[in-house]
Design a protein that fits this description.
single chain; five-stranded antiparallel sheet; alpha/beta; 9 strands; 2 domains
Length: 315
Amino acid sequence: MKSVRQQGIALVSVMAAIAIITAILSAMSYKQHIDIGIQGYAIQKNKAILSVLSVENLAMAMILNQDEDDDSKQYDYYDESWATPVEDLEFDGSKVKFIIFDAQAQFNVNNLNIRGNNRRHAIEILRNIFASLNLGDNKIYSEVANWLRPDGDIKSKDRLYLADSDYFDKYRFSNAPMVSINELRLMVSLREREGLEDILVQANDYMSFLPTIDELVKINVNTANDEMLQSVVKYFGSAEQFITISAGRPYANINSFCRLMKKNRNVCSRFFDVKSSYFYVHSLIDIGDNKVYAKSLLMISKDDTKVMLRELKVI
């Protein structure tokens, strides 16, 4: 017959074994729960990506079909069907709504990354925009202009030094086109500026950051807002000469717009147009308990269509 002491040790051993088994089972259950959660997240992520791809293809078709429906109309304007918000779509169980904006409704800041005489005009236009945003001091716009200076435009007095130093690669890296308005936060003259967040929100209506590929991206005068256009046309003459299109009268061709300019009329058509190639698509996707916001940049022409940029964010 076992002693009380032996029975106690046996009981402790059994309890310890039970505790270990319980811990193992709990760990296995937790891991299984995590695996299920990861699989569920992966499924939702894939659904979101597929929904965004479907929206992008639909947006491209809407814009291209608009052009095919009326070959005689050579301008883009917000009275066209592509500019109408689309809601209550469903893709594979996801609820989707989206809206298309003309990305050329603002001044493309990356036009400053173009070599040649057009760069000088682009800098002056940007200076007028900054002045409209109460950022008129020369330090700010000149810093942006220097940030976007093309490699070929390095001043001759600096060329020899830069070529023989480690600084050259850093200089080349910083002198690249901007992708987002958030890059303005890196500017020394803006970093500590009071009310910077409000300035950036307002600047979104004035500036875009589109790829240039060695040629200017023009402002569509039919889709640009009046305040932004008023600031830009100051470089081309008195803003009082500018006739607003807010009454719903888009310009059929760019010459009818440029004739209103008092000066620099010969460069007007280099920076303005009535047709666009770049469009933003903003999408909101409901997947289960999650909402996903997506922003896509489309490049569209009769010869080619591309997705230049895609951002997804869970909100």
